[in-house]
Design a protein that fits this description.
The complex is a heterodimer of chains A (about 550) and B (about 150).
Chain A lengths: L14 E6 L3 H12 L4 E5 L16 H4 L8 H4 L8 E4 L31 H5 L9 H15 L24 H14 L4 E2 L38 H7 L3 E4 L2 E7 L5 E7 L5 E11 L2 H10 L26 E7 L15 E3 L15 E6 L4 H5 L13 H8 L3 E8 L8 E9 L5 E6 L4 H21 L3 E5 L36 E3 L14 H18 L6
Parallel strand pairs in A: 1-2, 1-8, 2-5, 3-14, 8-16
Antiparallel strand pairs in A: 4-10, 6-7, 7-8, 9-12, 9-15, 10-11, 11-12, 13-14
Helix pairs in contact in A: 1-7, 1-12, 5-12, 6-11
Chain B lengths: L11 H11 L15 H8 L3 H17 L8 H14 L1 H15 L3 H7 L22 H4 L9
Classes of the chains: A alpha/beta (about 550), B mainly alpha (about 150).
Chain lengths: ~550, ~150
């Protein structure tokens, strides 16, 4: 094993900051740093997307949704994807590789963490507290909302007051009103979602949503916020550069163990090296630990910045249960963004009388087109043969769902490591997931399932189906390079700076100490902006 | 990744017979096997190499397991299809998936089920204005988030 030096062809001159990954966090960090005068380059293994070519305008959209535009890289299998061994996980990974990253395929449902989410050890005696508070992050949540554009409304009694949203909420629609009638009858909390989906024109060349219902395949209207449309134009205007089709093989280090850049394979298959004064990892909660474990050297024999042994450990998902109902009336439930109606946090905060700690969010779900319904959608497929047509007619436009997002606490045995055999198309070892659902998480989901049934029944649904844990639900990848004050118990400090390497930063979901019970992207992006702000304020030494 | 469909050797008669069992006739529509969907199924399956491989394997496995499928009665064909579904769930799923997708993109089917048939974009659907009155009850509730 040797220290990697820049023996490969030097791609171009040394940059101040090399960012690996152009998704939610990479885009935010790059824009902030470039606007502050740093020379920033990003390596992204995927490519720019053309919204006018998204499959929602194709006659074959229902096929594309399951294949070339599947959120599961193992099903999509594009050249820029890497395989993930998920045989030891009941949850499969969901991600996208391209400029914008997984914000291309997300639903853009954007709640924030609660203040209690940063203090679970103090409040509930589980896991660990974060080294930061909600109050410290709030200004960066606000900054991110402004750039991404948030549709929503203040006054939610389940959350602290917020600054004014940029746009009014997306309307509930006929289907949304029907579902919330159940919450209203039970007297349970619900609130229109904060969404990074335009309810009116906002941002550069971005229209209002036109309720097509398929923005999870990429938004043709550019109404759904993704960082290729928000942060990246700003970053490029400020002088940042991005190289697409660039797959990083390893982060390189010098004899002292400091980051020196990265070796990568360019879009033509040529091995390259990019040198940098600092490196920011933004490759998501699977891709980042994979790359760090692939970056062993004499100075880092167990993987980059891994003296704690925690790189790749404490993998958290939000295991999803899905409870759906068929309503007797037609609700046109294919109209409108799939997951952006509203949420309920009635059972978010800990109540130990329930038999578990922490809690969960309900995210309300619409349904999609006829083939999706026939294949079951959130439910079992419609039977083939006799009875098929009657069941299809019953479900089409009448199915509504409630997704349960439970707080999955960190456990060291849930890991991302390197598969001993599986590689990507460039021969780089692929990640392997090892994950089991904890009893606390299972108890949360079971509690949520019973209450969801009550909501659906109160709303008038007459055929309720339960998926106790969706397999294709690994949207939220967290915890695999956690932050903390103690270098023995964490990989990065509260600024996202690696304890072991003072010019290595991590800004994706890997740094999460706990996962809360909400979609994580606004928190990921707020943390990325905070780390970038720290570099601007404290690391001018990284400027060439 | 799109693949070449011209070299696929699919028994379209067998595929049509399977389609007849999966999606029976209804109202004025014949069963799916009589709607000349097999060409579109073969074309569409070729839009992704991974899917096409599974689909081709499924057809080959079905043919091997049921060499006389066409000569069976309807009830016997249903039994044979259920046996394949039970024995080879992933392969059967590919057959069912492509069958449902192609059937439900057919204009004749759209007309019968009252589906517009428009692609989701570019026209989308009408978005009603936000109605503040829906929050009347929730506005009355006191904050209940946990302070720290």
């Amino acid at each position: 094993m040797t220290t990697q030096n820049a023996q490969l062809e030097q791609a171009e001159e040394t940059v101040d900051i090399l960012v690996i990954g152009a998704g939610a966090s990479g885009g935010a960090a790059t824009a902030w740093l470039a606007e502050a005068g740093f020379k920033v380059k990003c390596l992204e293994q995927g490519y720019w997307q053309d919204p006018s070519k998204y499959a929602s305008a194709s006659k074959d959209y229902e096929f594309e949704m399951l294949t070339n535009w599947s959120p599961d890289p193992n099903k999509r299998q594009l050249d820029e994807d890497y395989p993930v061994n998920d045989k030891n996980s009941p949850v499969t990974p969901v991600m996208f590789n391209g400029v914008g990253g997984s914000t291309i395929l997300w639903t853009a449902h954007t709640p924030r963490f609660h203040p209690s989410d940063f203090r679970v050890k103090t409040l509930d005696g589980v896991a660990d507290d974060w080294p930061i508070t909600y109050d410290e992050l709030e200004e960066f949540y606000d900054l991110n909302d402004e750039v991404m554009g948030c549709s929503g409304i203040n006054g939610d009694p389940a959350n602290p007051p917020r600054s004014p949203r940029q746009m009014p909420p997306l309307p509930l629609g006929k289907d949304g009103r029907k579902l919330i009638s159940g919450f209203e009858k039970l007297g349970w909390h619900w609130w229109p979602s904060d969404s990074y989906v335009n309810s009116q024109r906002y941002g550069e060349g971005r229209d209002a949503c036109n309720f097509c219902g398929h923005n999870h395949m990429g938004c043709y209207q550019r109404a759904k916020s993704s960082t290729d449309l928000t942060y990246w134009p700003r970053a490029l205007r400020s002088g940042a550069t991005i190289e697409t089709g660039a797959r990083v093989r390893r982060v390189t280090t010098d004899e002292q163990g400091r980051a020196t850049g990265a070796d990568y394979i360019d879009s033509k298959g040529k091995e390259q090296h990019q040198s940098a004064r600092a490196v920011i990892m933004a490759a998501n909660g699977i891709g980042t630990p994979r790359l760090m474990l692939n970056s062993k050297s004499d100075a880092h024999p167990d993987g980059l910045a891994n003296t704690s042994g925690l790189v790749g450990k404490n993998l958290m998902f939000h295991p999803f249960a899905m409870i759906s109902g068929v309503f007797p009336e037609k609700l046109d439930s294919w109209q409108g963004p799939l997951g952006n109606i509203g949420l309920s946090q009635e059972f978010y905060e800990t109540d130990k009388s329930r038999g578990f700690v922490r809690g969960y969010t309900y995210q309300f779900q619409r349904s999609l087109g006829p083939a999706w319904i026939a294949k079951g959608g959130f439910r079992d497929p419609i039977p083939w043969g006799d009875g098929h047509h009657e069941e299809l007619e019953k479900r089409l436009g009448s199915v509504m769902g409630m997704a349960v997002i439970g707080e999955d606490l960190p456990e060291e045995h849930n890991t991302v490591d390197l598969d001993p055999e599986l590689t990507d198309s460039d021969g780089i070892p692929a990640p392997r997931l090892n994950y089991t659902l904890s009893k606390n998480s299972r108890d949360q989901l079971d509690h949520a399932i019973e209450n969801a049934k009550k909501v659906l029944e109160a709303a008038g649904a007459d055929d309720i189906h339960v998926d106790p844990m969706m397999r294709q639900s690994g949207w939220h990848l967290m915890g695999t390079a956690r932050m903390g004050d103690d270098p023995e118990k964490s990989v990065v400090d509260k600024w996202g700076q690696a304890h072991d390497v003072d010019n290595l930063f991590i800004v994706d979901g890997s740094v999460f100490v706990t996962g809360a019970a909400v979609n994580p992207t606004p928190t990921i992006q707020a943390l990325a902006l905070r780390t970038a702000d720290y570099i601007v304020s404290n690391r001018q030494d990284l400027k060439g | 990744m799109t693949t070449n469909t011209s070299n696929i050797n699919i028994d379209k008669n067998l595929l049509a017979a399977i389609l007849d069992r999966l999606i029976p006739a209804v109202d004025d529509l014949p069963s799916a096997g009589q709607m000349e969907l097999t060409g579109e199924i073969v074309r569409l399956s070729g839009q992704q190499a991974r899917f096409q491989k599974i689909f081709v394997n499924a057809m080959e496995a079905f043919a091997t397991a049921n060499p006389d499928f066409a000569s069976l009665t309807g009830a016997e064909q249903d039994d044979a299809t259920r046996a394949f579904e039970s024995d080879s769930p992933e392969l059967f799923d590919s057959l069912l998936t492509i069958s449902y997708i192609v059937y439900y993109k057919d204009e004749r089917v759209h007309k019968r089920i009252g589906w517009s048939g428009r692609t989701p974009q570019p026209d989308g659907n009408e978005m009603e204005p936000w109605d503040e009155s829906v929050l009347e009850n929730m506005r009355k509730r006191k904050p209940f988030w946990r302070t720290v």
